[in-house]
Amino acid sequence: MAETAARTDVGLDHMWKDIIDLGLQPYIEHLDTNGYTVIPPEIANPNGLTERMLEACLDISERRNGERPDLMHGKIRSGGSPIGDAMKAILLEDSVFEEALMNPALLAVSTYLCGYDVVLSSLSSTMKGPGETLFRLHTDTRLPSPLPTQALLCKCIYALTDFDRENGSTAFVPGSHKWGRNPVDNETVIGEGASYKAVPAEAPAGSLIIFHGSTWHGAYNRAAPGLRASVHLLMVRSILRVTEDFYKRIPEEVLARNPARFAILTQQGVVPAYLDKEDERAKVMSAMKYTSAFERESGIALPVIR
Predict the structure, then answer these.
(1) What's the pLDDT band for 10 if we cut at 50, 70, 90?
(2) For residues 217 and 11, what is the distance between their CA atoms, to the nearest angstrom?
(3) pTM
(4) CA neighbours within 13 Å on the CB side: how many for 286?
């Protein structure tokens, strides 16, 4: 297996025990080789998690848009976007998304890539209908080339419906995470005229797709009728700027009903920008409250994330 940053981070033994206990070794090997992996429903979908998430996403879409999506026959007004209708900031809309974040398989693989200080940057849902547009290849690291070899972030996608070429699945260029650069010009093309061959992620409903932040990826157009539904979690190292601000925004009852790591994942252990010495001290003390709770619960030492 390739060396990763997590190998030298804190909690090495804990991380590998989780990977072995969950039977994730072959998926880690595929991730190391290809830059992405598909964890099957029998591991990734405890207690009907994805079925419950799908119902929650349909409920949210109905509340926000005034109409419940028709998965079998419906179309999405996406304004031409190849990714479909994206519903942002849904973590606190239903407690099932707390379970999605705390899924042991998701945590084991995102920790493998980004270490125990990894935090949730965003949690959203996408519903994608039929269309003609292919979503061009890119990386999620969003830095100019050359890119770091270590993963600064990873994307985790729950397939709430079947993912394949006809259904408009995510497309990956296997091994591209090792190249240390972004695609340019015709390298961003999927299909005819492409410089590199992309492959569709084949993932039955209930699967979990996870990929390295520097893996070249895009999406095929959906050719089949109906909608492709998914939930996306962007996980990033704590030194990066996040998309959604969860700091001091998670209700106490939500923190109380979850393990201590939930607070770390939702940015409560991060020290944000401060105004002066007094403000710095208050924010450091707040972060230490959550990091100390995590250390007591897990036996893993974390620095105050600043």
Answers:
(1) low
(2) 30
(3) 0.93
(4) 16
